[in-house]
Write a structure and sequence with these properties.
Elements (H helix, E strand, L loop, with lengths): L6 H5 L2 H22 L1 H9 L21 H6 L13 E7 L7 E6 H17 L7 E4 L7 H13 L2 E3 L6 H10 L4 E4 L1 H13 L11 E5 L5 H11 L2 E8 L4 E7 L6 E3 L4 E6 L13 E7 L10 E7 L1 E2 L11 E2 L4 E2 L4 E3 L2 E3 L1 H9 L4 E12 L2 E10 L1 H5 L2 H19 L4 E5 L14 E3 L4
Parallel strand pairs: 3-4, 3-5, 5-6, 6-7, 18-21, 19-20
Antiparallel strand pairs: 1-2, 7-8, 8-9, 9-14, 10-11, 11-12, 12-15, 13-14, 16-17, 18-19
The chain binds 5'-O-[hydroxy(phenylacetyl)phosphoryl]adenosine.
Length: about 425
């Protein structure tokens, strides 16, 4: 069995890796300066030239990139290649309903598959495996991202996508899936559902789980491993940077190796935005140094964690990030889908029948996330008949679901029933214990 997918890159010395990073960093900065007016303007404003950026030490001179920058240049303004060079487009949700759009050249897609293949091999998979991908296929990067890596590895891929748990379990059993890729909460749900569909963990052949797209705890890992009889790995990524396989843990399970030949990670203080040393918690910032279509400079992920460059027992030199434990903004991840309270608010503001008071309640019921939006109705509507309320409820539910792309419950409540706050309104009550 292969220990590494790309032994040269994964085990080169720190000095070699640093030299490679510096080379690629310089080329990336030069490229965005030449090809992306948004970056050129930003750099010119602070009097920075590409030649000022030579090594990782210089990163801190560069301006940050945020989701807002991507929205301001929607859809293609940050692309560093003409559209004819773009082979695939993905998108993730944004606060105003406007998506952040990402483009990959053919070479970027190959890089993505390579990073994913490295992750699968790091988890112990090889070409004899049968990989069931239950991440969503479509604009979300989970499905196609995991798929590309499994294919590059030479494994047999089952593009199962999400939903229909009975069918997932039947496929798992009948097709003999050995690797499962999905969100950790869905893995737990699958584990719980085995019995319901007349199956036990002895009837399935899973040995590896590659789970990510949302935060999860070591306790959840233990539960999933127990219910499905596999070894679970934590895979991290975000569509702006690549999708799944920016980083993942190895068999030592002591943090997630960031593929540093392609992504330069930094941790910055969430208040001052100053870089922090190894081991300190802050916001993860990533600069891509090996991408063509959409290279991003110091992208603020809003994910909170820390980084270590200490040697790892697996032999890989690439730095490790801690599990992501939270976010520095108000983004929620519900069944793997990114949800901003402001998206819901924008729907509510369209309707005159409701007051601008709402609360989002997120619970985990049978290991699945359930979102309920409680909304106050206006005095006028409330004095009307109940049928009116039901209609409004259904209309809002359909509208919110179409904006977010996930199902939810909508509950209309009496005027003045939602607690008012004297400071910041408390819009989200997250009851999930994970
Ligand atoms: O969730 C990409 C992905 C798909 C990663 C499948 C892993 C597996 P986005 O939809 O852009 O991309 O959401 C990115 O999800 O900034 C984190 O907040 C969160 N996230 C992703 N992986 C993890 C993880 C995909 N392993 C956002 N642990 C990120 C905690 C994660 N949070």
């Amino acid at each position: 069995m292969k220990k590494y997918w790309n032994p040269y890159i994964e085990t080169m010395s720190r000095d070699e890796l640093t030299a490679l990073q510096n080379l690629r960093l310089r080329a990336t900065v030069e490229k965005v300066y030449q090809n992306v007016s948004y970056y050129r303007d930003k750099m010119q404003k602070i009097g920075l030239l590409p030649a000022d950026i030579q090594t990782a030490e210089d990163l801190k001179k560069l301006p940050f990139t945020t989701k807002q920058d991507m929205r301001d240049t929607y859809p293609y303004g940050l692309f560093a290649e003409p559209l004819e060079a773009i082979s695939r487009i993905h998108a993730s949700s944004g606060t105003t309903g406007k998506q952040t759009v990402v483009g990959y050249t053919k070479r970027d897609l190959d890089l993505w598959s390579e990073c994913m293949a490295r992750c699968l091999v790091m988890a112990g998979a090889d070409r004899t495996d049968i990989v069931q991908v239950c991440y969503g296929y479509g604009l979300f990067t989970g499905g196609l991202g995991a798929h590309g890596g499994a294919e590059m590895l030479g494994a047999a891929v089952i593009p199962a996508s999400t939903g229909n748990t009975r069918r997932q379990i039947t496929m798992m059993k009948d097709f003999g899936s050995t690797v499962l890729c999905c969100t950790p909460s869905y893995a737990l749900f699958l584990g719980d559902s085995l019995k319901e569909f007349g199956c036990s963990k002895d009837d399935i052949r899973l040995k590896i789980g590659v789970f990510g797209a949302e935060p999860w705890t070591p306790k959840m890992r233990a539960e999933i491993e127990d219910r499905l009889g596999l070894e679970a790995f934590d895979i991290y990524g975000l569509s702006e940077i690549l999708g799944p396989s920016v980083s993942q843990d190895c068999k030592c399970h002591q943090g997630l190796h960031v593929w540093e030949d392609s992504f330069m990670p930094e941790i910055v203080d969430t208040e001052t935005l100053e870089p922090l040393p190894d081991g300190e918690r802050g916001e993860l910032v990533i600069t891509t140094i090996n991408k063509e279509g959409l290279p991003l400079i110091r992208f603020r992920t809003r994910d909170i964690g820390s980084i270590t460059h200490e040697k790892c027992g697996c032999g890989r030199v690439h730095a490790r990030m801690s599990k992501v434990t939270g976010r520095s903004d108000d983004m929620l991840i519900i069944r793997g889908v990114n949800v901003f309270p402001s998206q819901i608010e924008s729907v509510l503001l369209e309707s005159s029948e409701i007051a601008p008071h709402y609360q989002i309640i997120v619970e985990r019921v049978n290991n699945l996330d359930l979102m309920t939006v409680e909304i106050e109705v206006s005095e006028n509507l409330f004095s009307d008949y109940v049928k009116g309320l039901e209609d409004t409820e259904n209309k809002l539910k359909a509208r919110i679901e179409s904006v977010l792309g996930i199902t939810c419950k909508v509950r209309l409540t009496e005027p003045k029933s939602i607690q008012r706050s004297e400071g910041k309104a408390k819009r989200v009550i997250d009851k999930r214990i994970i």
